[in-house]
Records
---
Amino acid sequence: MLKSKKLHTSVISQSVRGQAFHIIKFLDSRFRGNDKFLRVCHFKPNKGVIMIEEFIKALPKAELHLHIEGSLEPELMFELAERNNVELPFATVEEVREAYEFSDLQSFLDIYYAGAGVLLHVSDFFDLTLAYIERVQKQNVRHVEIFFDPQTHTDRGVPFQTLITGIHKALVEAKEKYGMTSRLIMCFLRHLSEEAAMSTLEDALPFRGWITGVGLDSSEVGFPPEKFERVFAKATAAGFRKVAHAGEEGPPEYIWQALDLLGVSRIDHGVRCLEDPKLVQRLVKEKMPLTVCPLSNTKLRVFDKMEDHNLKKMLDAGLCVTINSDDPAYFGGYMNENFIAAQKGLNLSHEDVIEIAKNGFRASYLAEDEIDAHLQSIDDLLGQQRASSGTLVNQQIPGKNE
Ligand code: ADE
Ligand code: ZN
């Protein structure tokens, strides 16, 4: 009988249900030339290795693209509906979740605006915002820049003061309880008129100290940024920072307009920029941040599946890409879930993940010294992990790593 001889041994690390394992493989001389040539010898826990999912969870992160109304989980929707005597077109939480199958942006927005109908009082906006904060502080999100859509509420008779007070109170609590910093960005609904946006800007002026910037959201195609040039000029005069959703479903031309006519300092989504090489050149040159939302883009069919997402191509083109959740209650994930889905789907390296997390802080509206402190905290984490294990690993067994 042939004696077994190990011709070549390799040790790799893989993750199985979140636990890191060493897998020791060797080539067995007895089976040379057939499919048993490669034998898996050992499969043992490896406590010294940090798998990429664990690494992502531990990373300090900043979220720059989050619609607070999009963080309304079905459970809270039902609780608020009961508290406020609002009738919902759904009988159960499960029914709500089943309705979250979207074919495009508009099919989502119809449900999203309807869901926001349960928000009536200061306490509702406070509970909504604090629920989001509590979720993401557990995910090591250290700074958030939150969008809110005043017109969704003022058009239903909810005063501007009511919604801004509830949101602001929760953000004060976020700082006191968790040390989490925040900024607020008020979005104009682009499917409504310029006049309506102007009057919303007027509503915001008494609360200028609580609001850092203005943005542009809602149905994109057919509602180009140029429609809001005068509104953004007025916002500039009032000292607001400016961002805009552009190039989510709309063409690269909308990104040009957001830059040239609105004067934005960040583009929300912007994934269609890759269709225009001159635009990419400009965005790279200006280090213009793009707040990309991977799970949103697959849920709303901008890309059929994560493997088709162009985030890695954007990163490789030198663009300042950040990862964000957009409307986490509707799209199946908060910050960690978005990072993990993009990492898996696009096989992002540790370096990619670190760069994206750092971009989140670099692109924020924090002061320079605060940004530097967050970047240092990422480097400190890397230093600690390297010192304790020496290895960062991102191989996974398909389908077994949950
Ligand atoms: N409002 C909430 N989510 C949005 C998105 N992904 N695009 C445009 N408007 C939105
Ligand atoms: Zn958005």
Note: The two ends are 42 Å apart (CA to CA).
---
Amino acid sequence: MRLTVQWSHDRALSCHHQAPENLARAPNLQDYDSFTAGYGLDQARALVEGLPQGGLNIAHEAVDRHVHAGRGDRIALRWLGKDDSVREYSYRQLMAESNRFASVLSGLGIGRGERVFSLCGRQPELYIAALGTLKNGSVFSPLFAAFGPEPVRSRMEIGEARLLVTTASLYRKKVLPWRNELPSLGQVLLIDAGDDLPDGCLSLAALMADADPGHAVAATRPDDMALLHFTSGTTGRPKGAIHVHEAVVFHTLTGLYALDLHPDDIYWCTADPGWVTGTSYGIIAPLSLGVTLIVDEAEFDAERWYRILEQQRVAVWYTAPTAIRMLMKAGSEFAQQHDLSALRFLASVGEPLNPEAVVWGQRTFGIPFHDNWWQTETGGIMIANYAAETVKPGSMGRPLPGIEAGIVRRTDTGVSEVTAAGEVGELALKPGWPSMFRGYLHEQARYEKCFAGGWYLSGDLASRDEDGYYWFVGRADDVIKSAGHLIGPFEVESALLEHPAVAEAAVVGIPDEVAGETIKAYVALKPGFCASGELRREIQGLARKRLGAAVAPKAIAFRENLPKTRSGKIMRRLLKARELGLPEGDISTLESDER
Ligand code: ATP
Ligand code: MG
């Protein structure tokens, strides 16, 4: 099975690292091949300190360790409020606050391994609750504040929530309607409790005021459950992935090598902690490496984002293709009005980063765009483009040190490995890295189905080139089979995005008697462009030129926007279900969209 078109491979683009002079800094990973050759996970484990009394706790690595090492005055977290207010926490303050939260939990009788949920926006209390929960040896599960009442209820039911941290209005709207149906839920702590505290709720601020800032960290073991993260639900019902304290080893390693974090960096991750990226790389990795973390409370706004990059002097920025496409849609004029010279390293995750976006990023920011690939299940970055290496636009890069990746095909008896360059198969990983998920909570059979022949099977299709770089083809569920061709949505969508009018594109396979499937594209236009038959023909013409008639979409429908998960992933399965008049399936993570 060969990719029908590999046009992005040979689109030569020089993307060498061009750090601004004032911030030029030797990358942490200088020479990929020689570094990874001898690198094992035992060496990775030396990146963490461990608790003084023995054991390992993520929050100790993320916070306390820096205070004990004399770096307590450094700003750990700089929070930017929607109203432009700013709150800062040094590592010392974050240590005291998270200790207080652990002491609150322990005072309320919340024990080791018990689940603490959060349902709130990106507020400092969320970060303190996350770290404090880990310090108490309890398990933290952050929920996205924009979820409706049912997605909140079902996740808290699966997770057997003991305690919830939320706000008064979110509680009234999203929890109160069903609270009595969830007997496991003991306490609800309100971040913004006023005088009219609802029944069965406590004021977080009042409890924190009486709590112990010197509360001792629980002696958790590396294999103790630490986090429960629900997947994005792009392909179906979300799964609750279990992560353990040892994951911090890999968060530290990937923060160093995949994100190239240096201790005096200002770092901004735009992901919400309701998704794994917002926890692994929005809390744990950057704090474990002692950087200053920017947290923005507000939602996407192109002008605001450029302002933050400029004013905060962000050096390392980790964002997502959907955000980049929105910036592209807003136009590069915005970018030109800002001084972005502090930016040294730019990375993206969550969806394929179209070559067009890489080219745009290079032009707009003057530095390469580093795509990287991972999943809720892997807990941390598995495949990445590195600071010192050449970026091949459209490629996800190469495996992290200590990670063995492969391309495999499922057979009746197990799996067989594909070794030839350019051949497409399922992206697989040899299990055993520290941030590997340890199960889907209460779904053992679903978990076991992820493994075969000694591999963890990702459910994504990819190929590997002769230099060992991985190229994303599509999710196995989204791949289209048309007239004997196997077509990855990514290559078709990337070709459509080359048209100057196209802001976003998604393609799906529509059943066809002759071809098996034909390709239908859904396209959202940039401002200033109007849908017309002429534009449709133009876009189709470009796609034919790039991809050939067999692979170019047969039909194009214009949309205001495309259905996405709240983590920013296009839900192709929903476009297809609607097209075919089939049930929509689980849409608990869907952001509102135009049909
Ligand atoms: P669900 O498993 O519930 O369907 P999901 O797979 O979208 O949801 P996540 O774990 O949040 O949930 O996302 C991981 C997936 O995101 C990957 O399996 C892959 O399909 C996609 N992805 C992540 N990074 C990249 C990337 N750099 N390039 C292409 N795809 C990516
Ligand atoms: Mg998935």
Note: The longest strand covers residues 502-512.
